[in-house]
Design goal:
homodimer, about 240 residues, alpha+beta, Jelly Rolls, 2 domains, four-stranded antiparallel sheet, three-stranded antiparallel sheet, about 45% helix, about 20% strand, disordered N terminus, DNA-binding
DNA sequence: CGCGTGATTGATGTCCTTCAAAGAGGGTGG
DNA sequence: CCACCCTCTTTGAAGGACATCAATCACGCG
């Protein structure tokens, strides 16, 4: 982590960026060291408690963020209160467009979350300078589009049982990518959130969870902690393939 | 078609592009005349009958297309036959990524459709040369992401009545943008397609259509032709705002 | 301990599906 | 030109999956 070799000039990677996931897979991976230093001047780290909106009320509304830790839920609400979660963002995802667009989406921390925020203007300038950065953003939006469309199939055509299994499988594959073995994780969402994500009610989610438990597909501890003995069985229950 | 005037140098806008929607709002609007000429060398126009896949079977699978006319439906299918339409594309939308990605989406002409296809390699090269082109593509993917998420709310939280009204409103706003007045249009989708788009059955779609008709919100002629006397009432029925 | 929030479980209701049949064009061939 | 058929759509009756309403449980905290 501290390979100090200093190619030639006096600039080096900002300390906060060194262990940052975004510096690797994320947006910042497209930047040179000097660009990273520049961006870092204007960036700020923030911690967001579960249930709070990501858009800092004191902060400038027009800002972008990288998720460093935690899970953020993107949701849409109808005027009568009906709500639908339309996406989950994990580290090191980039968030930014959702806020300002015509499409009214709210971003809220599902778990305790840490983000790195930048003023919109600085990032916009860098995007103009660094084509790879826009490419990376484009790439993420395509990934999100794929995920959204996958979820449309889940929402429109799957049974409650398959929906809940699909959700568990989604979390599983984000927590523990490529797991053919026994896995264990904490759910980042409450039952109410899961219901809003799946287009169901809390009660139905609960019932389907206990059914999956009784079928031996999952083991539940403390309401939030889940063990998946065999991810293939979960996949099957989710109607995938 | 053969207006040979030659401004000053020897290049000019290809004839086929002149009246093309994509040259204006679409992807090609970012290109210079010479780039357009270059791209046009490798492009081909194709007519696709309703119900046929957009990916030409004889054509190279890895190709991009602009929609010139008609409506294309993007859909996903489960192994047991359940199907969900995850998006509709209208002229002058660009299509290209859907095919090759990991996410298995099939693109099929909903109506008689005309497309302008390009080999993937040529477009990829141009995207690398022209940052505005990538910007345009990025922009479209963000637009599609918004639409997908809007639809997730529809799929997850709206009633059958609201779903059907939402679909009609979607078509209305694509056919006749900004219409506060009486509008009339042909549905680009069959009842079966509408059902697959809304996550419903054919019968339910039919029932809700007749209900909307009996409530005076729409007038139906010949199963496909729809008249909307008051788009605000339709909006309301769709649960929008 | 009592309270509050979130989750589970049960009883009942309802919206949408499923199954079934009939109606409405549209094209073909006699 | 009309009979026939094919596909798409509509309409009806019955059933089921999920929602709603309501009570209980489980855990954490003052």
């Amino acid at each position: 982590m501290d390979t100090y070799k200093k190619p030639s000039p006096e600039i080096e990677t900002p300390a906060v960026c060194r262990s940052c996931e975004a510096r690797h897979g994320g947006i910042c991976s497209t930047l040179t060291v000097s660009q990273l230093v520049e961006l870092n001047k204007y960036s700020a780290r923030r911690r967001i408690d579960a249930g709070n909106e990501v858009i800092g009320q004191g902060e400038n509304v027009s800002s972008y963020s990288n998720i460093l830790k935690g899970v953020v839920k993107l949701s849409k609400m109808m005027s009568d209160g009906r709500q639908q979660i339309v996406g989950l963002q994990f580290a090191p995802d980039f968030m930014g467009r959702p806020f300002l667009g015509e499409s009214t989406i709210t971003a809220e921390a599902a778990t305790e979350t840490e983000v790195c925020t930048f003023p919109r203007s600085v990032v916009d300038r860098m995007v103009a300078e660094v084509p790879e950065m826009e490419h990376k953003l484009y790439d993420q939006s395509l990934k999100e589009l794929d995920e959204a469309r996958d979820w449309m199939l889940t929402l429109g055509r799957k049974t409650a049982q398959e929906k809940v299994a699909s959700f568990l499988y989604l979390i599983l594959s984000h927590i523990d990518p490529e797991s053919d073995h026994r896995s264990t994780f904490d759910l980042p969402l409450s039952r109410a959130d899961i219901a809003d994500f799946l287009g169901l009610t809390i009660e139905t989610v609960s019932r389907q969870m206990t059914k999956l438990r009784k079928d031996g597909i999952i083991i539940i501890e403390n309401n939030r902690h889940v063990i998946v003995p065999d991810s293939d069985r979960l996949r099957e229950a989710a109607g995938i393939d």
